Each structure stands twice: as structure tokens, then as C-alpha cells.
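Please fill in the sequence for the structure shown.

STRUCTURE ENCODING:
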């Protein structure tokens, strides 16, 4: 009975992670809060697998590598509802668009996009597309493995930022989820590392190093400029770590 209860709790965590991080049509997920963050890399596997398979089918169907990469990228954006891209744009606008903590947080909450946000979003999408283009030129199977790896590892980075930094504001998506404990974050990181090892082999060392450095850099900037993390900062973390992982694989 206890094993069944534990399995049910794990499945609830996975459903909660998918419901939060994707726009996939799922049954109503239970509210699991910070307990479910260990499943974020598994949600990334689902996103990466769907996107990668679409790109792989397009590649096998005769489309050029550039268009196969574009298809995979578009599917990722659609599945997630561009929530991470939106977080990156809002973070760029807020962190570099004002001089005070309060004003930065105010800008990040504004739905309008400024110049910093537009530039950051354009550069991030271009970097992801270019990396996927190169990966599909290297081989469809390798591209699929890299896409799934990057999706999983980048989503394992978010719980680490949630754990390491306090909430920058007293409301919002991240605040509503809560702060996970170190053990839950370690489980997420461990799952992502195993996924990366299985899929990209010895490239896992570069993946882990660049993912860690990027996560630390984003966390340091967020701490310095707004005193903590928000949902937008988590979205920016996911985007930048994904780019770092993809580039580390093709380097």
C-alpha cells in the first residue's frame, strides 16, 4: 500500500510539473507546490522528445537542416506557451531597464516588452535555432538526443535557483510554488545528469559544467539586481541554460 501511495504521489508530481511547464491537454493536476520540482527535468524530457521527434521527422522527410531545426524550435515554443521566452524578455527589460530594485520589479511585471526584452528574445531564439541547425547537420539522432538533454537539464536548473535565492516579491508564480528543499533539488539535478549521460555520453561533463556556470551567473545577477528570484528569472534561467547546453554539445 505504501508503495502504491508513493507511486501515486510521484505521478501527481509529474502531472503537476507538466501542467505548470507546458500547455499540453492534461487532466486537472493536484497542487503539489515545491514538492513537484524534482519532476521538472522529466517534464523537459516530454517537451524535448515531442519537439525533437517533429524535427527528426521533418529531417527524414527531406527538409533542410535549417527548416528541421526551425520546426523543432517552433514546437518547443508552442508546447510551453512561450512562458520561458516571456520570462527571459521580462527579465532583460527589468534587470537592465531601471536603476532601483523596485522599478526593476515593476518593469518585469509589466506585460509590455521593451528594447532589452526584444533584443534578448531575438538573440536567444537565434542562438537556439543556429545550434539546432548545426545539430541536425550532424545527424537527426544526435539532434534528438541534444534537444531532450537540453530540455531536461535546463529545467533542472530552475529548482536550484528557487532553492538558492529568496523570493524577490511577495506574490507571483514562483512565490506561489514555494521554495524547494536541497534534497528535492538534488534529485532533480541527479535525474537530469543521468538523462544527459545516457543521451550524450561523455559530453555530459561539458553539459554539467556549462549548465552550472550559467545557472550561477543568472542567480548572481538576479540577487544583485532584485535581491532574489521570480518566475521571470526562472524562465530566463531555463532559456540561457538550454542555450549553454546546446552549445556545449556542438563545441
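FILLED IN BY: designer on duty
SEQUENCE:
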Amino acid at each position: 500500500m505504501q508503495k502504491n501511495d508513493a507511486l501515486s504521489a510521484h505521478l501527481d508530481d509529474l502531472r503537476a510539473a507538466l501542467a505548470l511547464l507546458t500547455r499540453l491537454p492534461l487532466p486537472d493536476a493536484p497542487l503539489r507546490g515545491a514538492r513537484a520540482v524534482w519532476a521538472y527535468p522529466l517534464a523537459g524530457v516530454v517537451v524535448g522528445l515531442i519537439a525533437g521527434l517533429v524535427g527528426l521527422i521533418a529531417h527524414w522527410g527531406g527538409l533542410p537542416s535549417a527548416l528541421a531545426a526551425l520546426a523543432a524550435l517552433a514546437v518547443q515554443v508552442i508546447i510551453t506557451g512561450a512562458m520561458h521566452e516571456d520570462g527571459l524578455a521580462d527579465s532583460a527589460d527589468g534587470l537592465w531597464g531601471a536603476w532601483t530594485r523596485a522599478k526593476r520589479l515593476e518593469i518585469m511585471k509589466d506585460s509590455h516588452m521593451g528594447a532589452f526584452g526584444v533584443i534578448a528574445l531575438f538573440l536567444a531564439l537565434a542562438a537556439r535555432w543556429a545550434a539546432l541547425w548545426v545539430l541536425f547537420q550532424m545527424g537527426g539522432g544526435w539532434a534528438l538526443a541534444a534537444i531532450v538533454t537540453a530540455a531536461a537539464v535546463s529545467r533542472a536548473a530552475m529548482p536550484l535557483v528557487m532553492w538558492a535565492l529568496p523570493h524577490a516579491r511577495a506574490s507571483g508564480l514562483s512565490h506561489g510554488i514555494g521554495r524547494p528543499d536541497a534534497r528535492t533539488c538534488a534529485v532533480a539535478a541527479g535525474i537530469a545528469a543521468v538523462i544527459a549521460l545516457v543521451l550524450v555520453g561523455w559530453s555530459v561533463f561539458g553539459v554539467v559544467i556549462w549548465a552550472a556556470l550559467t545557472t550561477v551567473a543568472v542567480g548572481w545577477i538576479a540577487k544583485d539586481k532584485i535581491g532574489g528570484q521570480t518566475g521571470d528569472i526562472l524562465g530566463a534561467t531555463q532559456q540561457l541554460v538550454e542555450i549553454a547546453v546546446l552549445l556545449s554539445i556542438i563545441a
